[in-house]
Amino acid sequence: MTAARDASPWRERKRPRRGIGAAVAILIAASASARAQQQAPSAEPPAAADPADADDTWFARVAYAPSRVLAASDFGSGGDEARAVTVEIGRQTGGAREWHRVYNYPSYGVGFFAGRFDHDRELGRPIAVYGFFSWPFPLSRRAQLTADLGIGVAWDWHAFDPTTNPSNTALGSTAAYHVDGGVLLHYLAAPHASVYGGMNVTHWSNGATRQPNLGLAVIGPKVGVRYDVAPRVAHPRTPRRDLAPFVPVWAFVAGVAGSTKNVVAAANAPADAIDRRRSFNAVNVTTGIERQFYRFGKVAAGADATYDGAAGARVDLFDGRQVESRAPVEHRFAVGVYGGYEHVMARLSVLLQLGYALWRGFEDPDVPRFYQPHGARFRLSDHAWGTFAVRSLKWREASFMELGLGYRVAWTRETSNRR
Asked: Distance (Å, rounded) from C-alpha 324 to C-alpha 284?
């Protein structure tokens, strides 16, 4: 391909479709259209405008995702099949800002999800709203691979109920957080339209705000169409020499986060004798040092202090009377150390940390000292950030959600030398 071809404009259009058959038909039509355009005397499109002068543009896309349920719950109805339709409205970056070129002209926006399960009686028919970020990797003049991430909230679940819905141990609440990720191949069918398909995973959990909470996920293919309001430019990857040089950055970070958490308290009575689910507050304060060692990645290490209101929680029966108790206030604290990695996607970053409680006031043999916070941060400014994360135990058991704010002070070697 010549440089002129790599810089040629294209756009993708999409309209709702009803299954894989429709996707195949669109692909066949798109291929025929592409061949006709290549054979026409005026097939060569005009050169793309300077990316620095391009404005962001609007697009819409619709996708269908048949999938399979992954859950530890022993559901009593239906099979493990699921289906979902997503409708998304987004902005395609045009290159007016430096980060557009750094991330290969990504797109972002808001999406709407509607799901159906064969386990309809236990799970219900949830809907969700989420924000998404699509990071493209150009393959050719008409094709690109994208890594997509969506984070939001889903509701209208059929929650666990010990009498009417005892087999849904996946979700004990009617609302849950919604996390969606996929790897998708996009094909440019026309200046305004494209089709795409790939593999997708979606996960739901309430972050231990209501027990039980074994969590739920689906995995499967996803196919869709996209329509762009303005002709879309197929940008090649920006050469590194044309980007501002990367400067490694050190930063001191401090933050506070927390939420309510729901636990099944210990008891001296059989599990089905009383409802032992109780809610408490949990708060985490953290400080650390992080190092952004390349454009898309940071490593960090630090310490945190945690208040866990559920420490030592019990609901006992004495002479038919319930007696609730928990550890004294001074024994509900713990101090730990952590280290981890944070993957940067413009203002959004995804993090995974590993921590260990060096000291805790209440020793519970059923609660491991090793914990794994994971989630996302969003940079609100050069100094402030918000966080949504889940502190997990045993890699999959949520302890509590970390919803909070933080502050960072950054410096480079050059600024240190000037001081």
From this structure: 25
